[in-house]
Amino acid sequence: MSLTTNWIEVCDKEDIDEEDVIRFDHGNRTFAVYRSADSDYYATDGYCTHEKFHLANGLVMGNIIECPKHNGRFDYTSGAAKRAPVCVDLKTYPVKVENDKIFIQID
Ligand code: FES
């Protein structure tokens, strides 16, 4: 079975501050791309799994993204739902940095 790799360029790595998140739209999809305090990068679906609300408008605290709508929380490194009202995990995507640019691999 062959796996297709679909790496999409997001931005320069310095375009995201430490412990912050940006919104990234591609086609008709939306993603959230995170930079941790240690400057590791992560990507998840852009919408909260509770309601269709952009997580990139939320607050990053350590490995947590807090949704701005009802304060549900996820671990953005694993996608795990961490605080009600969210109970469905977020989908995560592989991230790589090459030549100071961030890429995410979407299916
Ligand atoms: S929309 Fe995110 S917690 Fe409700």
TrEMBL record:
Domain Rieske per the UniProt entry, residue ranges: 8-104
UniProt cross-references to Pfam families, sorted A to Z: Rieske
Stored InterPro entries: MocE_2FeS, Rieske_2Fe-2S, Rieske_2Fe-2S_sf
Signal peptide: none
Keywords (A to Z) from UniProt: 2Fe-2S, Iron, Iron-sulfur, Metal-binding
GO molecular function: 2 iron, 2 sulfur cluster binding; metal ion binding; monooxygenase activity; oxidoreductase activity, acting on paired donors, with incorporation or reduction of molecular oxygen
Cofactor(s) the protein requires to work: [2Fe-2S] cluster
Stated family: Belongs to the bacterial ring-hydroxylating dioxygenase ferredoxin component family.
Record-given protein name: Rieske family ferredoxin
Organism the protein comes from: Paenibacillus montanisoli
